[in-house]
Amino acid sequence: MKGLRIGLIALFLCQSQLSFAQYHEVGPFLGASNYRGDVGPSYFLYPNSPAFGIVYKWNVTTRYSLRFSAINSTLIGSDYKANDLNRFSRAYRFKNNVSEVSAGVEINFVEFNLHTGTPDFSPYLFLGLSYVDYNLFYFNGPPPAEQIEYDGEQKVAIPIVVGFKTNPSPLVVLGFEVGLRYALTDNLDGSTPIEEFDFARYGDFSNNDWYIFSGLTISFTFGDLPCYCKEKR
Q1: Which residue among 40, 102, 124, 225 is least enclosed by CB atoms within 10 Å?
Q2: In this structure, which CATH number among 1.20.1250.20, 3.40.50.300, 1.10.3210.10, 2.40.160.20 belongs to the domain 2-229?
Q3: What pTM does this model have?
């Protein structure tokens, strides 16, 4: 949750600093999350927990935007839902609250002009970096076992988001997206705790974890028209 608060402050500062100069979007992200790692099913898209956040975009041209977001969810993994008999027999399960702050570039595959007076449509790709605030823990024994939390360093993730958006009016942009996050850690599920808790390690240590946010974005536009939309005189 600390990461989400930082993200909200950053978005507010961006808005206050830039709103005089360009055309902007800001609004909620409403969707779901899932995790892919050493516990549970190995599907990349298996939403099983609510996710919410806020997204801000600075539309530099009709083809790309600078994008900032903050999203919070609880990652859930359960071997009882695994598509692997060995995992099902092992019976681990966990919950881990995750707050993410991301920054990067959103690229439109076709020109997306908010000021034509008619709806536009475009698929898009977002690439950037995410700071991830999550709970560090280990299991104090074989299942059923308790999650024991400890303090430690947080991590970075690499987001790869694909989506589709349209503007039913010049003031509103609707989007649907699926965003994979490659975490630079193998410990979202408590499988690789610090050396002090080495006895609690399990799973495949050669692969890092993934988490996925999928859902809707509802953006409200504001600010002056950018230069690419002004009439020539």
Answers
A1: 225
A2: 2.40.160.20
A3: 0.84
